[in-house]
Amino acid sequence: MKKRTPISSIMTKNLITLNFNDDLTAAEALFKNYSIRHIPVVSGDMIIGMLSHTDLMRVSYAENIEEVELEVGTVVNSLFTIEQVMTKNVVTVSSTATVREVADILASREFHALPVVDNEVLVGIVTTTDLIQYLLAQLN
Fold it and tell me: What keywords does the record list, in alphabetical order (predicted)?
């Protein structure tokens, strides 16, 4: 296994992002349409937060009520803003961080995704799934 592999070699570069003034309905659509679990929240090219699918579910108390899900979900989504629900003060890594360094952060901090930032500009995202896929490739 390569010990100094930069995270830039496994991170997702084609990012799906939200603007801080988007609404939670837009966020929910992105989670569903792209089958993703984490979305960086940006202002221009700068990351200001991270929204996870779990964050969205925390405010959607009617998740399991199928008959009124759409109506209640719409009401809940209009009660909260992305800025209120997202994680602020996000831990980031640079694209030159190694896979090992990122794995250490994800494991010790119990995160599932980290934004990759160079010169204060969001350039990627790395998830636990990216790390697992990398490790599996090393076993072949």
Answer: CBS domain
For 7-139, CATH gives: 3.10.580.10
The gap from C-alpha 37 to its chain's centroid, in whole angstroms, comes to: 6
Q: pTM for the full model?
A: 0.84
State the CB neighbour count (10 A cutoff) for residue 25.
13
Q: What is the mean pLDDT of residues 31-55?
A: 94
Amino acid at 99: V
pLDDT tens digits, one per residue of 54-81: 888 887 754 444 444 444 355 456 678 8
CA dihedral 99, 115, 90, 37 (to 10 degrees): -100
